[in-house]
Amino acid sequence: MTLLDSELAGAAPQPEEAGDALTLGRRIRERRTALGLTLEQLAAAVDRAPSQLSAIENGRREPRLPLLRALAAALDSTVDELLVDEPPSERAALEIAVERAQRGAVFRSLGIQPIRVSKATGDETLRAILGLHQEVERLHRERAATPEEARRANTQLRREMRVAGNYFAELEQAARELLDSVGYAGGPVSQRAISSIAEKLGFSLHYVSDIPHSTRSVIDRRNGRLYLGNNLPSRDARAPILRALASVVCGHEEPRSYGDFLRQRVEANYLAGAVLLPEHATVELLSEAKQQRQISMEDLRDAFAVSYEMAAHRFTNLATERLGLQVHFMKAHESGTLIKAYENDGVCFPSDALGNLEGATVCRNWTARTIFSQPDRFNPWYQYTDMASGGTYWCTSRVEKAKEGLYSVSVGVRFEDVKWFRGRETPHRSRSFCPDDRCCRRASGELTSKWEAAAWPEAATPTSLLAALPTGTFPGVDANEVYAFLEAHE
User: Fold this and answer.
1) What does the angle CA 367 – CA 439 – CA 464 come to, to the nearest 5 degrees?
2) What's the CATH number where 77 sits?
3) What's the rounded mean pLDDT across residues 311-327?
4) Per the domain annotation, does 439 fall within a domain?
5) Domain HTH cro/C1-type: where (predicted)?
């Protein structure tokens, strides 16, 4: 069991599509109806607004334990009876199945307005909707055959990260122990300190010109050597060293599946961030910034001399657990492709039918896309976006450059939490209706009628479009090249 596995073992389960909340809501509604109580009467009995109870009965909100106890008492029931997993009736089971389907990633990707399931909706209508949805799901599964294992593993891992608030105490503890071992006293963690950590773990650092092209680093455990390319900037060498050493610190073994491989990468990136932005010092800085209502990714980046992306990602590790903030993070290529994403604030990221985010196209009206059209690349871009899926979100975004081109890194929160952040006074505002393709993907009727029959573009097809998933113990790594490299340097 890895550090991430053991940390998640104690986390409370969070159903993918709120199935438990739907069942609980139906049981409460059925019990209330059987007792002849109106929604208003039950709300008065538990001292809550009728709208709150309506959201609970519809499975859109889960009651906390004190409210659940009050509901059980008012309904002459028990908490255990209300929490039974089985739907209270055959009709309720059908309603729950349709509601769950309409809230899933496949239905959302179709851009169809969900129907309101009410008493007047006939059983045959519900069965027809459910049958159609199941057939669409089957077709999507067939089309997603090649990279399905990787996408499913990635979706599952992201779900686990969301349950944990993207905070993993054992990795934080491991980072503290590494820093304590080299006498870290505060401020940016130096390259010398990272070299000392490597030495404490029994490894010498070697910068070489012939690092295998399919690798970022290579560890020789037999001779205690860590090889990196000699073209790394001195400051940026810290993160690659820490990511490489994470396999030693976290006790990684050869991955048995793509899921293991992805989990190990998450742990390596997390550990590197936790060392370079130590928890205590980072939380102290962010807490003070929150008091002053001036939380800023730029300040976090500058305080610890790290990249903007690492600062933004590290913020998501600590925002929920240590600052009480629910947030989202995204990295998008200038083409609009979503590269990385995390959320626990309810923002509706684009996704494929399996719920996987990476590779989906980001709405042109989101901050992560609008920033590319801004002339000032030296200051952050702030924007409010009104979402068709519900609610308004505020984001701060910045453009960075990589060998693959430009990409944006964005951090955002719900409207009610923007009061803690610098940039909340921005006048910039946008609206997004995605996944409705009329939002930003469909041309106007005038342009369509003019060019539809005349345009014949050649697609710039990615070389990986039809490629099989990389094979090998470490997917994408040329083992023959690595072994030959180690033999040459021994």
Assistant:
1) 70
2) 1.10.260.40
3) 95
4) no
5) 28-82
In 115-167, the DSSP E strands lie at: none
CB neighbours of residue 64 within 10 Å? 8
Q: Which two tokens stand for residue 15?
A: 């159903």
Backbone angles phi, psi at 404, to 5 degrees: -85, -5
**Token digits for 248?**
């030693």
What's the DSSP call for residue 228? E
- Is residue 442 domain-resident? no
What is the domain extent for residue 38?
19-142
Q: Where are the alpha helices (DSSP H) in 250-366?
A: 258-276, 279-291, 297-304, 308-323
Pairing mode, if any, of strands 392-402 and 338-343?
unpaired
Report pLDDT digits (tens) over 45-72. 999 999 889 889 888 888 888 899 999 9
Q: Which position has the token pair 């801004």?
A: 374
Structural domain total, the chain: 1
Structure-block tokens of residue 3: 């550090």
Query: Is the distance from CB of 167 to CB of 318 less than 8 angstroms?
Result: yes
Question: What percentage of the chain carries pLDDT values higher than 70?
Answer: 89
User: How many residues does this entry show for the chain?
Assistant: 490
Cα–Cα distance between 207 and 203 in angstroms, integer? 13
Give the CA dihedral 98, 102, 105, 107, nearest 10 degrees: 110
| Residues in CB range of 45: below 8 A, 6 or more apart | 37, 70, 74
pLDDT in tens, 345-404: 989 888 876 677 778 889 999 999 999 999 887 789 999 999 987 789 999 999 998 877
Pairing of strands 204-208, 225-229: parallel
Whether 418 is covered by a domain: the verdict is no
Q: Are 264 and 2 in contact (CB under 8 A)?
A: yes
What's phi and psi for 232, nearest 5 deg? -75, 135
Vertex 297: Cα angle to 424 and 318 (nearest 5): 105
pLDDT in tens, 234-261: 447 899 999 999 999 999 888 877 788 8
CA 98 to CA 125: how far, in whole Å?
10
Is 118 within a domain? Answer: yes
pLDDT digits (tens, 9 = 90+) for 121-161: 888 888 888 888 888 877 666 554 445 667 777 888 888 88
